[in-house]
Structure formats: structure tokens, C-alpha cells
Amino acid sequence: MPQDQPPEAHRHDAAFGPDASSGGAADGPPPEDDDAPGPAHASEGEGPPADLTLADFLQRAGARLLPAPPPFYSEAAFAGLNGDHALQPDRQNLAPAAVPRHAAVLVPVVARPQPSILLTLRSPHLSQHAGQIAFPGGRVDPGDADERAAALREAQEEVGLDRRFVRHLGYLDGYLSGTGFWIVPVVGLVDPAYDLTLNPAEVAEAFEVPLSFLMTPRNHERQSREWKGTLRHFYAMPYEGRNIWGATAGMLRNLYERIYA
């Protein structure tokens, strides 16, 4: 999703910038398609949940997040899965022809009194999905113990987020991307004292967005545009000049549905 330079979103006090470096580059799943979304056709009208404090979020998360990773993709379960296909009228015809590749992302909830979500802006130098907003994450490697280990490893490789700053909370539903990945979202509570060191080959910037904005249904725009001759439907959450859309917005919508709906 190529973008002009947007206004700053809420950011951590640490120096976030492309001149910092971290460990090895991650080979992550493309979070969404390269084409930018079109104008919104509809959005939901509801306001924010009544209580968006950290204490309320943690209470809800403990009761409503999945305690174990969702099962890997199976064709038999396709109709009920979350993913890029979920909003398409002809979704029953969109099952992948090949077995999806296994991936995991970290959904980092920063433990402020009014919580926020830490997101990344992918490097403009990437050959695919440059300039898109995403969660830290990537493929599950053979050496990873599980999806949680993969998400934490990728977060450290991409943005230098040390796992000692992350407390595991649970999992969202699996997400099937149109680019052939089965993504497991791992929800973690991040100490606000975290430090980041960005890998400039992967990430141009890291920034926080208030949970109150992301969990307000009227900010969950349902947009559509023609792509490769087909009208595609997807969620988008424009925020302060940034457009959070596609798979990232779809997983954030799932966080809302699990925690607050």
C-alpha cells in the first residue's frame, strides 16, 4: 500500500527510525495486497465500548481469547474461517488451490492505562507490500517451537522487541490471506517501557494506535475496489493519515469481535 508521508500517529518515546538496526531479516507473510484501497462504501455506526481501560481489557482477554493456537487450515473448515475471503460474496469459490504457508504475527497491546496497539510500517524498499501497515510477524520456521515462538522471534528480528517485554495473553482466530498464508495472531501485553531497534530492511517505522480507536466499530470501514477484474471487499481503519487495511484490519476486527462484541 504505497503512501505519502502521513502525519505522526501516537508513538513510543524511544527513538524509532530507519537508521537503527536489529538481528536477521524476517521473511514475513505479505499482510495484504499491494494495491491501495478505494473509498469507503459503508462503515458501521456503533460507538466505542463503554470501558476501554487496561483492567477491563485484561479481564475480557482472559475470558475470551483462545487459550491455544487455532488448528491449522483445513479445506473442510474453509467456509467458517476468517480471512481475506470472508467479506466476498463468492467466498465459497475462493478456497486456496494449494496448502497455505504457516505464519504467525504478534498483536502487541501496549499496557498503558488507555491501551494501544503497536504496528509497523513496512520498508519502502521491499519488493512486495512496501509501505504497508502490519503487525510484526512472519513464517513459522522449522526451528520454532510453535506459533507463539515464531511471532516473538519475528518481532525481535523486525523491530528489536525483546520477549522479556511481552506477556502472553492468548490467540485470535486464524486468518487465511489471499496471498497464501495461514496466519495465527498471537496476542501479547507489552510493557510500555519497551525499547525498539528497527531492522531497516524490513520496517521503516513503528507507531502506536489507541485501542479505543481500533475497537470502535464505526471506524471499521467496509471498503471495496476492483482488483484483477473482481470487486474485492475488505476492512479499513484510516487513522491520522495512515490507512490500516486488508489482513491487518481484518485481524483487528477479529480482536474486537472476540473481546468487545
For this entry, give a set of tags.
single chain; 261 residues; alpha+beta; nine-stranded mixed sheet; four-stranded antiparallel sheet; 4 helices; 16% helix; globular; disordered N terminus
Any overview of this molecule?
There is one protein chain. This protein is α+β, with helices and mostly antiparallel strands and 261 residues long. The protein has four helices and 13 strands. It has helices at residues 54-64, 147-159, 211-214, 246-259; strands at 40-43, 82-83, 101-110, 116-122, 133-134, 137-139, 166-171, 175-176, 181-190, 203-210, 221-227, 230-239, 242-245. Strands 2, 3, 4, 5, 6, 7, 8, 9 and 10 form a nine-stranded mixed β-sheet that branches. Strands 1-11-12-13 form a four-stranded antiparallel β-sheet. The longest helix is centred in the last third of the chain and has 14 residues, at 246-259. It is globular, with a radius of gyration of 17 Å. It starts with 39 loop residues before the first strand and ends with a helix. Residues 1-37 have low confidence and may be disordered.
Largest sheet: 9 strands, mixed
Radius of gyration from CA coordinates: 17 Å
How far apart are the termini? 29 Å
Helix and strand pattern: EHEEEEEHEEEEHEEEH
Write down the overall mean pLDDT.
Answer: 83
- Large-scale geometry: globular
Strands, total number: 13
Number of alpha- plus pi-helical segments: 4
